[in-house]
Amino acid sequence: MEAVFTVLNKLMIIFFLILIGYGCRKKKIVDDSFMEGIAGFLTRIIIPCFVISSLQIDYTPELFRDGATVFIVCVIMHFWGLVVGWLSFRFLKVPQKAKGIWIFSCMFANIGFMGVPVISMIFGGNSVFYCAFASFAFNITAYTLGVVVLDKCTENSDSSKVNMKQLLKAPVNVATVVGILLFVMNVRLPEPMKDTVDMVGGMLSPLAMIYIGGILGKFDFKETVTEKWAYAVSFFRLIFMPLSSYFMLKPFIHDKLILGVIVVGLSTPIGAFCAILAAEFGADEELASKYIFVTTLLCIFTMPVFFMLFL
User: Fold this and answer.
1) Are 56 and 186 in contact (CB under 8 A)?
2) Are 171 and 48 in contact (CB under 8 A)?
3) Secondary structure of 160-203 as H, E, C letters
4) Is 250:236 a contact under the CB 8 Å cutoff?
5) Averaged over 241-250, what is the pLDDT?
6) pLDDT tens across 99-134, in order?
7) For residue 309, which phi and psi values (nearest 5 degrees)?
8) Segment 159-194, tens digit of pLDDT
9) In a 10 Å sphere around its CB, with 0-12 CB exposed, 13-18 middle and 19+ buried, how is residue 89 labelled?
10) pTM, two decimal places
């Protein structure tokens, strides 16, 4: 029972942080340019610092093996999402124009902005370390396989708009590689530098949640919540993907924390990156934004269920 109250307490904190961002956007305290700046600050500075900070722990072969397991399993689950997305698209007869966005939404959860801060707040311990490997798997597959899916499933797409080399050299990927190298070599940052990285990385949870609230505040509530396909994709993103992954992986992964990080990470909503890439490829950015809004709203009710499986 104590674990239940702990989860509810953390989720209430997250809800209030999202509410702050939502209110600021609706009251026009912040605008589009400010939100773009915050997104850039998060992806280029705060998340890389968070990743490096989380990897500043004593090296053991077992820990590295567990991190590699998280990475490999997450990559496999993204491919599983591709299968689920393609089959559900055909079975439900989703409109053709939504094909790329639909499949991408089934493949990729918001592990960076939503998963990492929430998992670290509730699970604690080595969960942050495992999240770094899960995020690395997301970035590698989203910036390669995800780009290909949106490109091939979008009419009149232009592949030249996305520089694959630049995407792979994204700050969070570079930070993950640097962090892993420091971890494997058992190298510690000098105290002043480590404290700075820790402090900057520590801003991730509040700022990411406020940012998500700001994103939600951008859309017309009534128009967005009446998009029927958003609820169908929410089922696959928030319930089917994490639940099917849980039953698929449970016989093979016996470490409760590792399984928890993977499954809860997969239970997070669709990330803003879906809308960003939709705009890049001329897909329906507005539809992608509606999917993001509804899944983010509904995850407040679905994510606690998956947390409870591991507490």
Assistant:
1) no
2) yes
3) HHCCHHHHHCCHHHHHHHHHHHHHHCCCCCCHHHHHHHHHHHCC
4) no
5) 96
6) 999 999 999 998 877 888 888 888 888 898 898 889
7) -65, -20
8) 555 566 776 777 878 888 899 899 999 999 999 999
9) buried
10) 0.83
Report which residue type is found at 104.
F
3-state secondary structure the chain: CHHHHHHHHHHHHHHHHHHHHHHHHHCCCCCHHHHHHHHHHHHHHHHHHHHHHHCCCCCCHHHHHHHHHHHHHHHHHHHHHHHHHHHHHHHHCCCHHHHHHHHHHHHCCCHHHHHHHHHHHHCCCCHHHHHHHHHHHHHHHHHHHHHHHHHHCCCCCCHHHCCHHHHHCCHHHHHHHHHHHHHHCCCCCCHHHHHHHHHHHCCHHHHHHHHHHHHHCCCCHHHHHCCHHHHHHHHHHHHHHHHHHHHHHCCCCCCHHHHHHHHHHHCCCCCCHHHHHHHHCCCCHHHHHHHHHHHHHHHHHHHHHHHHCCC
In the structure encoding, which two tokens stand for residue 221, read together?
């509530």
Pairwise CA distance, residues 199 & 205, whole Å: 12
Mean pLDDT of 264-270: 92
